[in-house]
Design brief:
148 residues, alpha+beta, five-stranded mixed sheet, 6 helices, 18% strand, transmembrane helix, Thiol-disulfide isomerase or thioredoxin, isomerase, Thioredoxin-like_sf
């Protein structure tokens, strides 16, 4: 009989550790609203206008796909937030139908939510289902600016 090989056990432990770290990192990052630099936000006005974003209106743009379960959850969150905050429009975009715009706006997965201010600039974005409280906090100053 041959003794068990320690190499296989070490490889298994390393793979499990790497998968755990990757899963933790992705879960921590998923759905988090990230600020977009003003320089990166400005060139996308034409693409957003082509999708239906109107000037002067704060808009939540969701890129989704028909078979995406998290997209349905994101839609519920966005509808709730848009219903609570006056002056916020909601625009759902099919990523497959608007693949060129999705690529132009650096959308690589669904759902992706873009928070667009009244000037047509992307100010925040989230990949995954965004947190309701984070969205409300991000929208408050934008809607105040749009009303002023």
């Amino acid at each position: 009989m041959q003794p068990p090989r320690l190499t296989g056990v070490l490889v298994l432990v390393a793979v499990l550790a790497a998968a755990t770290v990757l899963g933790w990192w992705r879960r921590r990052r998923d759905g988090r609203l990230r600020a977009v630099s003003p320089a990166a936000a400005a060139p996308h006005r034409a693409a957003l206008a082509a999708l239906g974003v109107r000037p002067g209106v704060v808009t939540l743009v969701q890129f989704s796909a028909p078979v995406c379960a998290p997209c349905r959850a994101a839609r519920r969150v966005l509808e709730d937030v848009a219903g609570r905050v006056d002056g916020v429009a909601l625009l759902e975009v099919g990523a497959e139908e608007h693949l060129d715009r999705a690529r132009e706006l650096d959308v690589w997965r669904t759902p992706t939510v873009l928070l667009v201010d009244g000037d047509g600039r992307i100010v925040r974005r989230a990949a995954g289902v965004p947190d309701r409280a984070d969205l409300l906090a991000a929208l408050t100053p934008l809607t105040a600016e749009a009303r002023a």
